[in-house]
Amino acid sequence: MFNLFKYSSPASFYPLAGRLAVGFGIASAILLVIGLYMSFFVAPTDYKQGEGYRIMFIHVPAAWMSMWIYVVMACFAAAGMIWNTRLSSMMASSLAPTGAMFTFIALWTGALWGKPMWGAWWVWDARLTSELILLFLYVGFMALESAIDDPRRAARASGLLALVGVINVPIIYYSVQWWNTLHQGSSIKVVDGGIESSMSEIMLWTLLVMTFACWFYAVAVSLSRVRSTILERESGTAWVKTLLKGEQA
């Protein structure tokens, strides 16, 4: 049987991460090309927002990924703190830069979308403000981790920040329901086990393709980054020395 616990060891996970990163990277590139083509040439013009709405196909997946990555990062951080697993804290560390990037893209594209629709680049809307706080949480996580020299102490401190900050994710998601905001509500809802959408089917499929492209990209980049982290933190172990000698030979 396939033993998942085997890959909780950095030495076992390192080669697997390399293979998975290549596969997810290729899949992300293919889906991104398809998704962008559908976004610009297949999806119809919106009857209210015109052509400007097409930024949605980048903005929405980026916003979804910003929240999803933070939740996954917090789960890895919690696992590292509870079971004292080195790989869990490494994964949390590797996810943070990608999550921060998607958060920045969500804010930036939201500003570009908001200017023609709202007449302003930025408003202190509940969703926009909580998304900005999410960016600060990502930056704070990375800054705190890099400020502490001891990796284990850094993992505990940054992990605690990640766990405290995860409460912001449901605030982002439900902000348009809890408060009267400028930001529009969700166009996709899960009802009775199915997906209900107010947008056309081709728009929905385009959005899903772009979402999976961003998801696969996040996995590929995070796995590549964790491989570098493993080599850095395990540099004194025999298996890393052997690996490096083999690559130099």
How many separate domains make up the residues? 1
Which stretches are poorly predicted, pLDDT < 50 over at least 5 residues? Answer: none
User: How far is the first residue's CA from the last residue's CA?
Assistant: 35 Å
Q: What is the strand content?
A: under 5%
Order of helices and strands: HHHHHHEEHH
Quickly count the helices.
8
**What strand order characterises the main sheet?**
1-2
* Main pleated-sheet profile: 2 strands, antiparallel
Rg on CA atoms, Å: 20 Å
Molecular shape: globular
The helicity comes to over 70%
Total strands: the figure is 2
Structural class: mainly alpha
- What integer is the average pLDDT? 90
How would you portray this structure in words?
The chain is built from eight helices and two strands, in the order H-H-H-H-H-H-E-E-H-H. The chain is globular, with a radius of gyration of 20 Å. Strand 1 (188-191) and strand 2 form a beta hairpin. With 249 residues, it is mainly α. A two-stranded antiparallel ribbon has the order 1-2. The mean pLDDT is 90. Helices cover 75% and strands 3% of the residues.
